[in-house]
Amino acid sequence: MKNRLLWPGIALVALLLLNLVVTPSFFALRIQDGHLYGGLVDVLKNGAPTLLIAIGMTLVIATRGIDLSVGAVAAIAAAVTCVHIGTSPDIGTALVGMAIALVLCAALGLWNGFLVAGLGIQPIIATLVLMTAGRGIAMLVTEGQIITVNNDAYRQVGAGFVVLPISILISLAVLGLVALATRKTALGMLIEAVGVNPEASRLAGVRARTIIWTVYVFAAVCAGIAGLMISSNVSAADANSNGLWIEMDAILAVVIGGTSLAGGRYSLAGTLLGAMIIQTLTTTVYTIGVATEVTLVFKAVVVITVCLIQSPKARAALSFRKVAVS
Amino acid sequence: MTALTTRLPSRFLPVLATVVLFALTFGVGSVRYEGFASGQVIANLFIDNAFLIVLAVGMTFVILSGGIDLSVGSVVALSTMVTAAGLRAGWPVPLVIIAVLVIGSTLGLLMGLVIHKFDIQPFIVTLAGMFLARGLCFLISVESVSIKDTTFRSVATAVIELPGGVTITYNVVIAVLVVLAALYVLHRTRFGRATYAVGGNEQSALLMGLPTARVKVGVYVISGFCSALAGLLFSLYMLSGYGLHAVGMELDAIAAVVIGGTLLAGGVGYVLGSLTGVLVLGTIQTLISFQGTLSSWWTKIVIGALLLVFIAVQRGMIRGRRRQGAVAA
Lengths: 326, 329
Known about the structure:
heterodimer; B: 13 helices
């Protein structure tokens, strides 16, 4: 149990130390206008959307599912909000726009839940539908344009500060709420039960379908908020690039955090570590001076390594060798 | 015997549905737009989608065996990059082609081995493959590299005249050859039979003494090879290599295979179905461009809707198979 978090923790510390070696000022924090600035704060700020989506993804994966549509959902949320805000600088318009977007995201989550729990379609495929069509919908909303807005209230979501960046505060708040809701009540256990065996848990009286439905709605709402953060940070919605490949990053964060893709157990703390590792990795590659796109190679290596560590067969092979050596 | 005759139509039903769908979409086009129902429009369907046909063939093998390959789009991009960079460095064309095919097949082999040896889900392994291949593109060059080699360009622009004034490119010939080869392998070789068997029920296939390991690794090698070949066709089509080529093409390939009637659970499906699936996607694109006022992103929405319909039909079929007891739950 405890060494599930050990390896991701060590990896994160190692990455941070590497940063310290490359850029000695990495850990320096300074306060300017009541805001914290510094390398670590940047990591937190840029990692906030990934973390938020990864939290939703953790619960989905715990039910033995997967949600590939989160990136498209994020793009839709950004598109809807920015189109609603338009040229208005009002705080009210921004709030209404965000509310509409999140309600829409919840509806998209219901749709995914319906396909998975209602029709019983494999989650990868069921969410693939929305992943394909979702970008088209987002393009439809923005009419293929990049929508720029100039709304201070909206900018706060992704670029604002209350000492720390507001985006990471939102993500951490959601993380805390989810941790409370699932670990202080039976909800977490029920989710894990559904992941281990949906049929058996249904027979045992767990409302498996409702739970599956709930996690997909939750994941979609998380994706929506993340989409708002991403677009608010640059005050623009781009249906093509908002949230592109973020589903992969989120899945990666969950897997690195020790949540098994086979479902049935999950670790929120692990997901937090995982999301931070991904973001630190991206930042590290950037500060070392390698092209950002090459991060993909590192991510690939990390995924395979983590999967091999998790794989029972690879573990067996390793421990067999250990025994043989000793 | 009676069981066989009653089951046969339901096996072919999805493929028939796809063919009907293709006829319908094409019919709608020819009724609504003048000049749609010409031989050249059909030829253009093949010319514009030759790489997707090759990709869908490789994907058919993987999905038939019960797996999935998310890396194909990235391998296409990597292949265009290797082709462009190789030609820029002055390599002879045959060497470039061999290098690309070897790289693609090797990537497929590695993914297949990891999936089989360590029992890791195909989805996550090929996801890693996708990251790796795209990253390797950017390691070669972050910018787009154009292809200036004269031999390569002359092959790309060469056309073959067919009777009736219809012209096709060499890409189409290669795509058709790949489809024929796949038909032969799937229906006339032991490997093909074993692929269907593994997809139907891996445990039973293993107990029957079929070479399940060879199939499970082999389909990814085939898919990697097809992706590399598709990448070569794509470089002929685009005449450049770029790390952002073919983003999301894996989804098009999966969509084509699913719309072509192959069961995602594995074990049921036909290469000709996937070919028809690609043609359906191509026709929708052509329809939307003929229509003129509809924006191109409608393509994505329509593909998503089609995917949904076909998946729902598949669910019905799987439930039907369960009832017959053909699938061990």
